[in-house]
Amino acid sequence: MTRSKRYEGKRVGIVGYGVEGRVSAQYWRRQGAHVTIFDGNDQLEVPTGMSAVVGDNYLDNFDGFDVLVHSPGIRPDRLVTSTHQHQIVTSATAEFFRHCPAPIIGVTGTKGKGTTSTLVTKLLEAAGYKVWLGGNIGQPALEFIDDITAQDKVVLELSSFQLMDLPQSPQTAVCLMMVPEHLDWHTDIEEYIAAKGNITRYQTAQDMVIYHGSNDWSRQVAELSIGHKTTYMKQPGAYIDNDAVMMAGQRICGTNDVGLVGAHMLENICAAVTAVWDMVHHDACLIAKVIKDFKGLPMRLEPMERVDGVVYVNDSYSTNQYATMAALTSFEQAPIVILGGFDRGIDLTPMITAVAEYAPRGVVTIGQTATIIRDGLHQRGHDLVVNGGSTMTEIVAAAAKMAQSGDVVILSPGCASFDMFKNFKDRGEQFRRAVAGLPGKHEAI
Asked: pTM value?
C-alpha cells in the first residue's frame, strides 16, 4: 500500500540506532524527512543520505529538530531538553498506532508476552485471518506497516519501555501477570505499572481488556479502561478445571494435551484463548488443535537434547526471578538449575527462598548476582551450589559434572544477561553450543 509522505521536509532525529532505530530511520526517510541518527556508538556506520551525532554526549542537544524518535531503551524524558517549543517527542510504536489501518491486539505483562502474542497469532491464522506479529518480540512494527490492510489483524508484544509514552491504546489489550521488573530503568514500581497502564488508558467503550484475575497489578491496569473487561484464569474468560482448559462452559482440551512445557504456560494459553474467543467464532476444535501443536518459542523452556541420559533445557528468556520460579516447577523431578546474571539491584529473596524450598538437585551460580544467590542459599541450608565460572563452556561443564542420567539441567537465570552476554539470545545460543560440545552420547528429544 502506497502512503503519502507525511514528514516531507521535516528534520527528524532517531535517538538510539539499534534494531528498531534502524527500521525507524528508513521509515522516516521514506516519509520524506531529513534524518539524523543520535547514538552513543562513535564507530557507527551512518547510512548514505543520513547524518549522525555520536559519542558520549549524543543526548546533549536536540535543538532544531521537528521530531525526535526515541528507541525503547531510551527514556523519553531524556529528550525533553530542547528550547524548541513545537518539537514532537515520539516513538516508533506511537507512530505505528497512529497510522495502522487494522485493529491491534496488544499484549503486555512481566512474563509470557512473547508466548501469548505468538499463540494469539497462530490461533487467528488458523481461523483464516492475515496476521502481523511484531513489537518487542523481534520485528519492529514499522517494518511492515505499509503492507497492512484494514481486513488484517495486528498482534504486538508491548514492553513497559514501548508503552511508557504511548498516547493510544489497542482495541484489544491483554494484560498478563505482572511483578516488579526493570527497576534499574524505571524510577519505581509505580512508574512501571503506570507505563503498563497505557495499554488500556486510552481505550474506548467499544474496546476490550483481558487481564489476569488474580494479579492486583494486572487488575489495576485493566481498571484504567472504559472498555469491556474480562478476566482469565477465572470465569468469564478461559480457566483450568478438572485438568482441562475451559472457556464459556466448553472443554477445549486436557492439560496433558498442551504442547507447551510448564504449568505456568497454562496461564498464557488461557489469556490467548480469552482474547481470540469471539474472533474465532467460539471454535473449540480449532483452538484445541493449535494449542496441541504449539510447542513454544526458542529459549522459553525449550528442551534441546539429551546427553548421556541428561536432558538440557534452554530457558534463557527467563530474565526475571518469577519466570525462573515458575520454571522450577515445570518438571516431574527437581532439576539442576543455572542461576544468576546482571545485578539490577532487585531483591532476589523471593527466588532464593523458592529455590531453597524447592530443593533442586543442584545450583550453578553465574554472573554478578552469583554471590548473592549462593550466600542466600547457604543461609537457607542449601549446600548443593557451585560457581559456574566465567564462560558458558565452564558453566555447562559444572552443571554436567553434577548431573546423573535421568536428571534435567535447565538454564533459567532469573536475571538479565548484560554482565556476561550481549543479551538473552546470545546467552541462550552460547548455552546451546556448549551443550552440543559436551562429550558423551547425544540424543534428540
From this structure: 0.78
